[in-house]
Model the fold of this input.
Amino acid sequence: MASGRVLLELLVSLAAALVVCLQQCSGVPVDPRQQVVQLLEKGNHEDLAKYDLCLVCEGVVEVVKLYLERNASVDEVIPVVEPLCLVYMNKTNGYNGTFMCPGILKSYLPIVLYVVAEGALDPADVCYIIHLCNSSSHAQSSSPLLSLLETSWHKRQWTPTHSLPGALEGNSLREEPAVRGAGKRGGRLEKKGGDPIVFLQLSDIHLDQLFAEGSPSICNLYLCCRTWYSGTGPAGHYGDFNCDLPLATLEVVVEAIAQLDPQPDFIIYTGDNSPHDVWNETWTGEYQATEFLISYLAEKLPQRHIYPALGNHETFPESEYIGTLPQYQELTRKMADYWQKLVPLPQSALDTIADGAYYTTLIEDKLRVLSFNSDYGYTINFYTHLNGRNAYFTRQQEWIVGHTSKG
Done:
């Protein structure tokens, strides 16, 4: 039986080669995507670098669809997708894909396959979504993005479980402000003494607690400056362009904030706590990074109220979020615990943070903050396709309407 299977596979390969030969000899153009598929099937991954990255992606998708039809596992699909990751990392960015791709695929591929299996995404649209194919080349593919709503893959709608109106019931809009005594004059917010309200924004700190001074700052990875990476160029005391932020630099920034004159009335912190080593992420690492940074800011700036928002790097893997899965429900519950270290929040705000990482509260008598979870609509959050009606990916325009004016 085994020998018969080998013989059959050999005959199939010979037939495919004969078709290509006849096409070339007769002057009939060979479909480049089919050539890519044949290279993938033969395991000849080195020659993939000769092809346009979009073609490689579309070829990989064609093979993956065959695997999905026979209900293959994630572990079976990873070797099929890995050549695409390697070509992208090595050819496009000059990164060490051999080092980075295994961890990235292990984190992201299960989510992509989950969304596809739920019927919310045609695999043929993935290359466009991850920006490896542009709109014009995608429109020529076998499954155009604009027909996404008509395909057999696209069957269900998803409605978020979180509702902002429920968060605003009762007297939650009338809570005591965290900073008292603001009014409005001449089109700007002012304190009672007539001075303008001053605030400061922090964002994308991406603290790397594993940063090491003197380590390689050029390492062919998305993030360098760690002792065990190979490369050149010693990282300086305060970091390098190829590094994430060292603690020494954060200390200088926080000291400078403490010496500002006038002092900010409040601080907005719009998230992203962890470093960019996306191939090495875990939930434990994400929580540790967030807890450390929140505690550090609370300790070093105790006199300032800091209003946080969720960044796309607080989740695992980064940028992926959906409130209906238990791991993300655990994330938002932890955020409620962490964030109350930064500012005294009313219970109504803590409840909505725990529910979906969004909240509203008064800062001043005449000033309100509304912090929303922008991960819901992030373009590279594959879970958004469970919505099934995403206007961005169907190239629609949107009108946001309401009874009263907004703003």
In short: The chain has a mean pLDDT of 79.
